[in-house]
Design a protein that fits this description.
Keywords: Membrane, Transmembrane, Transmembrane helix. The protein is built from 4 helices and no strands.
Amino acid sequence: MLPKNHPCIIDAAISLEILDKNKDPEFPTIVTSHMVHGPCSALNPNVPCKKDVVVVVVVVVEVAAVEVVVVVVVVVVVVVTVVVVVVVVVIVKVVVKVVEVVEAVIVVLVLVVVIVLVVIVVVVAVVVIVVVLVVAVVLVVVVAVVVVVVVVVIVVVEVVVVVVVVVVVVVVVVVTVVLVVVVVIVLVDDDFQTQTTSTCDGLSE
């Protein structure tokens, strides 16, 4: 008794047949063009499985960058908050053990001011990080636009050069043809005049 995953069992259950072109001329073309293709390497970059790879990579990179930025901002905020809390707790314990009530009130007010200043510093740091990220994104967009514009300009210049070359070639050909025609006409006219002169001289004699 053969197991279910034996190749003979699989071949008996699954098979593929490309129909004869002479009997069914349409179906083999459909199968070979939509269901069968060659290698998926650099030898054949236009296969269906390779489409939109660049778009997927760009989207993945952008998502990863945003996630990294968010994680960095969150870590900075958490670390600063923990440091502030630890500093406040330590200062409060030292103040309670060392100074009197009035001095403790003054120290608490100072601590409040310090905490406010620390919060302001944290907010400013977060704003600076966001501004830097926005500037970086804008620079990336500007660079991409400049690259696209340069490519378009290069293509337009190449097209203009090709058109100019074609026009020059056509003009040269036309001028050459006209010159040849003029030369032929002049030669024919000279021959005709020579023959006419000879005929007239013969008649006069």
